[in-house]
Every structure is written in structure tokens, then in C-alpha cells.
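This protein record is not my work; I was only asked to verify it. The record follows directly below this note.
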Amino acid sequence: MAKRIITISREFGSGGHEIGMKLAEKLGIKCYDKELLELAAKESGLCEELFASQDEKPTNSFLYSLVMDTYSLGYTNSYVDMPINHKVFLAQFDAIKKLAERESCVIVGRCADYALEEFDNVLSVFIHADMDARIRRIARIYDLTDAKAKDLIKKTDKRRSSYYNYYSNKKWGAAESYNICLDSSLLGIDGTAKAIEQLVELKENITDKKL
């Protein structure tokens, strides 16, 4: 059976991590979120704390251009004489590809859909939700006031958006950047996980996909 790879990008507070975990459980595969940082650190030989400090954080455009030039030249395994931003990004990029080649899995965030855009067996999903629902969720989880929860949501989404827009050739949250976008405030956590599970099965079973 072909490997199943599902990438999940998500608005903060939409329940993307929990959805990914439930989906992985339903499919009998692993879910990688922050676990990917440990994996990338192990495979690259870099300190795991470096990945945590740079996790889904944008760099400036000059550094980004250097990263892309280095990657295109095939230097991804040496990480020699690179700024730390380069090392962290490329190590994660390589780890995601190796992971997808090795096993079926769900990968949350970290431009995984972009890293795997040449893979045929990938379903890329973006999870969004109504702002009020997200505020309630974040306020409950982190014990915040609604105002502080909303502020945290906006800052986190801005950071994720900047990271994605820098490191991919797509736009974060735009429908055309993903195979499917789902509203978790409409379907709920379990319902969204179930919908993705059904989409995976449909994708695998429908043989005539021509428009």
C-alpha cells in the first residue's frame, strides 16, 4: 500500500494539532508536530534548542535568498558556514522529505506541504475557524482573558503567515495553496478529523481525476 502523507497548516486556535493527532490515530500512523524538531536535530546533528528558538519564525529576505541559493546548489547535507537560520530551515526541510519517504504520517505546520509538493501521495489541508471560536479555545487552554487570547492569536497567525510566505512560493491561508480548506468551528475537532480521513480515502480510490 502506498504511503499516506497528510500535511496540516492551521490558524492558531483552530485545533490543528489536536485534529492531526486524532487523524493519525484513526489512520494508524504517527503525527509529527514539534516532534519534527527533535527528528531534524537528530538527523542534522544540530542542537534541538536551536530548532525550538527558530520554530516557524520568519527570517529576513536577504537570508532567505541565501537559503534558496544554497539549497539549489545541493549543499543541504553539509550545513557548512551557514547562518543559523539557514541550518534550521534546511534541516527541517530535509527531515520532512526523508520522513515522507520512510513512512505514512501526518505533519503539522513547518511548510511541509511546500517541502512535499512534488510527492503524489500527499494531501495538503488548511484548518481555519471562526475568530470567536478560536478566542474561546485559546482563552480556555491558556487561561487568558478574551482580549489577551485574541492578541496572541493575531501575533501567532502573523508569525506563521510570514514564515510560510517567505519559505514557500505560495500564500499562507489562501485556498489555492492547499488541496482543501476546512472550517473546524463548523465541523468540530472530531468532525474535521473524520472529513480529512474520508478525503484521504477518496483521493486514493478515485482513479479518474481529470478535469
Remarks:
- The beta strands are 5-10, 30-32, 105-108, 122-128, 180-183.
- Residues 23 and 193 are 5 Å apart (CA to CA).
- The longest helix spans residues 146-167.
- The chain is about 55% helix and 10% strand.
